[in-house]
Amino acid sequence: MKPVLLIAVNFVREQRWAILVLLLWVLVLAFLGLATDAARQSEDLLFVFKQVAVYVVAFSVFFGSSAIFNDRRSRRILSVLSKSVGRQQYLSGLVLGMSMASAIYGFALGVTGSWTLGEAGFPVQQVWFLMLCLVVACTLAGSVALMFSTFLNPFFAAGATAAVMALPAMVSYTTGSAGWAYVIPVYQLAATVLKSSFDSPGKPVWSPIIWAIVETAAFWLLSVRIFSYVDIAVSVE
Amino acid sequence: MSCALEFENTTKEYRSFLGGRRFRALDSFNLQVEAGEIFGFLGPNGAGKTTAIHLAMGFMRPTGGSGRLLGERFGHSGTRRRVGFLPENVALYPRRAETLVRFYGALNGMKGSHLDKRARQVLEMVGLQDHAKRNVSRFSRGMLQRVGLAQAIVNDPELLILDEPTSALDPLARVTVRELLLAARATGKTIFLSSHLLSEVELVCDRVAVLHLGKLVRLGRTADLLQAGERAEIAARGIGVHSFAGAVAQNGSVRFSVPAGQQRAALERIWSLGGEVVSVNPERRSLEEIFLEVTSNPVSPPAKDTP
Q: What is the residue range of B255's domain?
């Protein structure tokens, strides 16, 4: 377990600038909270909150699709996997690192959202549930991207991830079948955040979260299987 | 004696993305590295040395054959706890040297004050104790290589696999590394050393193998290989410098070399000329000569100087 944690913390440290850029958006929300009358501008604040929230999903795809590639291109992966670290532990570390990165963001946004939206009358408990949805969605999106990145370069891995996440959502949207939204429930979880409003803040629905966690585990297993066959010392250029 | 590293008919082919073009980097490669020896692994660029090392470390799978690292099949992660590895081009995360060495030690299951102490100790061993708090991103290539060596030995490994460990080092640092390797051997460690610096290999290695185009072309004890010359150098007094072809006068004696098979006849000729034999020595070849000899020829089955 310790190598997994070490790799995860190392991943977060490596991505610190990207995380800081993300946190700047949270600062924007905080600034709006300070500069505006929360009660009168509540809808605007909620709009910014939702917009800022979904950015992190895109960043998770970026994190997931580039993590292995960056380590292989720089050849730093050799120093890590020359230790007593299995490939499944390495991938677990990356998934945990992506979850930690999105959790840091989710926590910062949750604190800011509780303050700004809470002041405008949005249930604080629901803000934290939305953040949980967001972190789980990010972890799943990152895991899908990570799986594709075991055999594709980051550009194609990100594209494939976007396609895999978007297709069921589009089918669900066009057919109106809720079942399709659960195929890869990133859309379902993001929609929970996007559809919340002051009139209808929503209530905690756990099924997409549980399903997303199960799928994250499944994609991790698939990644491990594929990655065990990859010649990691071969140049990725 | 047990084997620390063993390749059994190992073959590795690289294939293009769609599998059309194939390149055989390692071809039915057999090698046994005994525990407790310093083993030199030589070969020109593209010979397959790094491929063999990467297979041993489990970074890639062999196309054919197999191998064992400290008794376990290649790729067994638990075994790597007992192995230290320095890659050819050291690439490290941008951290302070001490933090980095602790990170790699922790990945190998080390912890607490033992790890802290060991990290400081290995940085001192490679001469970086004064730079322990500096970020390695500001290090020169030679310093990076030394940090790489420090992370390789932090877990006090039984087997040390070093791919070009002295390529970026200055002569002083090379001496430090050489002493470090000899000290490691004295404590029973096994060292598998891939290097282009033949003079270094000649100085420290007990046995050497030469790889060429993916095949093993020479294997033997370093001392035997160097002395396996087919010529003898003879020094004599009391004879003319023109008595033997290629003879030179040196310090009052005449020196020349003859094929080993003609040594007896040459000695008898010296005596018949009224001369006196000062010395007869088997001509010692350099590893460089052997290297050039075996790598300039088409690949043939390995010549084993020892069983």
A: 230-282
